[in-house]
Task: inverse folding
């Protein structure tokens, strides 16, 4: 997912980035070229990071929505399911013994989304989420920790 988002971000340069690249190209071999190239590279990094973070936010929101639908099924509220087209797949994970896990999964997904707004490395945030989800799945979940804080 990460590689696809980065590729998409690289293919969708803003008008500012296009302008900065053109300025750098115009200064090729002249005074100020290095500064112009650096500005374009910095802008490209910022845009890529923002687009990838936005993409992960969408992925996390969709996963939380699906977990919410599974939770609704697990507690017998089938009418509350928003993604009816996935109801058969949701039923496979929506058992009453998984209610606690599904609740925790939603919390972990929302926590990770909030962490992304603090601008960490997306790869680390995703890896930490997967570890916390596995711990929750096997019953070893620790306390939830607010974004930007270390758990003790």
Result:
């Amino acid at each position: 997912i990460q590689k696809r988002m980065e590729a998409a971000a690289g293919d969708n340069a803003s008008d500012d980035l296009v302008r900065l690249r053109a300025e750098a190209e115009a200064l090729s071999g002249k005074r100020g070229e290095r500064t112009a190239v650096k500005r374009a590279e910095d802008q490209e990094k910022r845009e890529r990071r923002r687009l990838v973070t936005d993409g992960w936010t969408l992925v996390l929101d969709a996963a939380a929505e699906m977990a919410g639908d599974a939770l609704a099924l697990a507690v017998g509220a089938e009418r509350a399911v928003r993604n009816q087209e996935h109801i058969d797949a949701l039923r496979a994970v929506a058992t009453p013994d998984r209610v606690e896990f599904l609740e925790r999964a939603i919390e972990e997904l929302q926590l990770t989304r909030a962490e992304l707004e603090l601008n960490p490395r997306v790869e680390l945030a995703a890896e930490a989420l997967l570890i916390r989800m596995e711990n929750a799945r096997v019953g070893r979940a620790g306390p939830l920790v607010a974004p930007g804080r270390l758990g003790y």
Remarks:
- The radius of gyration is 21 Å.
- The chain has a mean pLDDT of 87.
- Residues 34 and 129 are 39 Å apart (CA to CA).
- Residues 33-74 form the longest helix (42 residues).
